[in-house]
Design brief:
Layout lengths: L4 H4 L5 H14 L8 E9 L2 E10 L3 E6 L20 E7 L2
Length: about 90
């Protein structure tokens, strides 16, 4: 039986569940789920954000935000376009 990301990792919305089931499960081996941190706090340019998933590799770190960050904060609807459905590179090892 193959393990699936949606069983190994938490999700708090349908978009997060869909990402785990239809993107992450087919894309990575189950032993790599340990590299995925749900609801991670990240710092970019001195500001802290909470993203749906942080994927930390040996060379790159990615932030995955599926709901838009107004879901995690109180900035209101005008902030919804910042990271909606985007995978951003947070760090690249030199």
């Amino acid at each position: 039986m193959t393990s699936s990301a949606q069983k190994a990792l938490s999700s708090t919305s349908f978009l997060e569940y869909a990402f785990l089931r239809w993107v992450l499960t087919p894309a990575v081996r189950p032993d790599m789920y340990r590299l995925v941190q749900p609801q991670a706090e990240v710092e970019i340019s001195g500001r802290k954000y909470r993203v749906d998933y942080e994927i930390v590799g040996s060379e790159k770190t990615f932030a995955v935000e599926l709901d838009g960050y107004e879901h995690h904060g109180s900035r209101g609807p005008s902030a919804t376009t910042v990271c909606v459905r985007t995978i951003c590179t947070l760090r690249v090892a030199s």
